[in-house]
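Example 3.2
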Amino acid sequence: MPSGGSTLNAENSGNHTLPSTLAGVDPLSQFLTGPRAQAAFTLRVTMDPPFAIDVQDQAALTVIAAIQGGAWIIAAGTDPQFLAAGQAATVRGPAPYVVADAPDRAATVVIGPGQSCRTPAGDHVDVTMSHGVRSWGNSPDGDTVLLIGTYQSSAAAGQLAVSALPPLAVFDTQETDPALLGLIEREMSRPAPGQESALDRALDLLLLHLVRASVDRADAAGPSWATGTRDPVVARALEVLHAEPASAWTVAELAKRAHVSRATMASRFQAAVGQPPMTYLAAWRLALAADRLASSTATTAAIAQDVGYSSAFAFSAAFSRAYGVSPTGYRRAAEVS
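Structure, written as tokens:
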């Protein structure tokens, strides 16, 4: 596609005072206050049938909104879903998916990593299908108009935030704010100072609305921190874990805070969130650390202490096990991207 912007605890230790940017937030709030969309790929797509866009860009998450007409979204492991005007959809990557005028349509164009655009035969059509900045399609006045927002890579807390989303979800008009869709379309249509930042923040806000809608659904994706908020006992535990991730939490202490027995806390947390409380805390601490590595110049030792580790060595070992790369390597990769 044409340019739409550049490329979304393992141990308990003593209490620490966490920086204000990390304290008292849940994964969705951290997603909006920490590393989030930065120069995200955003595009207005206009298509006439027949069309089938085979998306193989390996993006972490894509948000699609239909402004006019509609399209089918086909993703592996799920039934094809139709996206009608006024609706929005989320597609979790990096697996490929197809956007088409019919669910059985053969691919007419393939989108690769870096938003390269070619025909199935391999001919590049980046230029011929471009209609200006942030506008692309097989017809400048196509019957189907889609707004695309892509998080090429997602920050760690962002990954936790969108864990409430299934691989493919379509949200109806009651769950999608039409005013917000209108704002995004207007920003895409008129190049202006600050456009890139405005689109980033609007895309973040749209995703927040969609994650909330997914949480509110009875058929939301499997157990996660989001589904845990429905259980008042688990919600209390999540509240204190998010507010004080560096504290020396135990299941017994969480149970005390929620005025239930240790066994009750352990069983209800496991059922609602899908993992034990201390396993969730480990992931949350490391996610916060990953976001700080990507967005600050704080030393590894300082970050380790801030998220609840007694030593940089213990933190580095836990981080490497979870992310497959050292904290230093993670920071370098974030700087390159």
